[in-house]
Amino acid sequence: MVDRSQAGRAPERALPSRWSLLAEALRAGGDLIGKELKLFQVEADGNLRAIAALIARFGFALILLVGGLLLLVLALVRAIGALIGSQALAALGVGGAFAAVTGIFLVLGLRRMSLDNLAPRRTERQLTRDAELVGAGE
Q1: Could you tell me the end-to-end alpha-carbon distance of the chain, in angstroms, rounded to an integer?
Q2: Sign of the alpha-carbon dihedral angle for 82, 86, 87, 90
Q3: Which of 34, 41, 75, 88 is 20 to 30 Å apart from 65, CA to CA?
């Protein structure tokens, strides 16, 4: 005779052992670490590409700017030299002013390209979030 008391029910599964749970946790942890490293790599690569594009744009703009500024500086030196009667004093005054402006832009540009701006912020946030989740599960 067939036992019909078990009919329609799914067969009972044995509870997983500690070793299989530990193996699954280690596998999931390894997957998580792999994904974190991939995120770091993608973010760092994106940051480096952005810096390279920024440097290329600055270089091209610098070439155009230098050509235009040379013409303007020569015109300004001649105009001031005609007003004060000395081309040498006019050249010193105009050159000093442009050197000061160049120094200001140099400092601003170096601050913008500091190593602090290259830090992988998304990876740091994700690692913090993952650490909080692991800490909350204990």
Answers
A1: 50
A2: negative
A3: 88
- Distant-in-sequence contacts of 117-124, Cβ < 8 A, 24+ apart: 117/47, 118/44, 118/47, 118/48, 118/51, 120/39, 120/40, 120/43, 120/44, 120/47, 121/43, 122/39, 122/43, 123/36, 123/39, 123/40, 123/43
Quick one: 113 exposed, middle or buried, by C-beta within 10 A (0-12, 13-18, 19+)?
A: middle
Q: What is the pLDDT of residue 61?
A: 93
- Indicate the DSSP class of residue 115: G
* Mean of pLDDT values over 124-130: 84
pLDDT single digits (tens) 30-81: 888 888 888 888 888 888 888 888 899 999 999 999 899 889 889 999 999 9
Q: Quick one: tokens of 19?
A: 């070793």
Copy the structure tokens of residue 1. Answer: 């005779």
Alpha-helical (H) ranges within the chain are 18-84, 87-112, 121-136
The answer to whether 70 and 91 have CB atoms below 8 angstroms apart is: no
